[in-house]
Amino acid sequence: PLPPNATVLPHVSGGRNKNYESASAAVSVCRSEEMGRYAVAATDIKAGDTVVVEKAYCSVLLAEHRDTHCFHCFNRLVAVVPCPRCCNVAFCSAACQRVALSTHHGVECPVLEVLWESGASVTCLMALRILSQTNIRYFLDMRDQLQQ
């Protein structure tokens, strides 16, 4: 298995786009009044070509995978390390458990089961994760901009 927080990302096909580091040179980003910003193929793109690769800003484990995957790093569980506060999630290592409890799961643990049972969308779960892991100072600093 991968060590916690290890990231294996594929490479984009056709080399990197000079304007968009995460995109392939096979993609061109355009703008128009009616459509806003959009991407088009700059060259022929074959089935299976990778055109954009970015590390996820936020990720969450869906309820249907809680018995098979680590709640923190998403690796498949071999030896389960349980959450000491709930029976909803498990971790693949003591390290993943420690990091999760000191960050996202420390906030989510008391409400996670209710969120899953409510049918909250993955978007809702990711919004909670982002909000709970962002320092309050960020939002206070943004207050004036958001009110404009």
TrEMBL record:
The MYND-type domain covers which part of the protein?
Answer: 70-109
Instruction: List, alphabetically, the PROSITE patterns matched.
Output: ZF_MYND_2
One example GO MF annotation: methyltransferase activity
- Record's SUPFAM superfamilies? HIT/MYND zinc finger-like
Q: Which InterPro entries match?
A: SET-MYND_domain_protein, SET_dom_sf, Znf_MYND
Q: Which GO terms describe its biological process?
A: methylation
Sorted alphabetically, the keyword list is: Metal-binding, Methyltransferase, S-adenosyl-L-methionine, Transferase, Zinc, Zinc-finger
Q: Which Gene3D superfamilies match?
A: 1.10.220.160, 6.10.140.2220, SET domain
Gene Ontology terms: cellular component: cytoplasm; nucleus
Q: Which PANTHER family match?
A: SET AND MYND DOMAIN-CONTAINING PROTEIN 4
Instruction: State the name under which the record lists this protein.
Output: MYND-type domain-containing protein
- Say which species the protein is native to: Timema shepardi
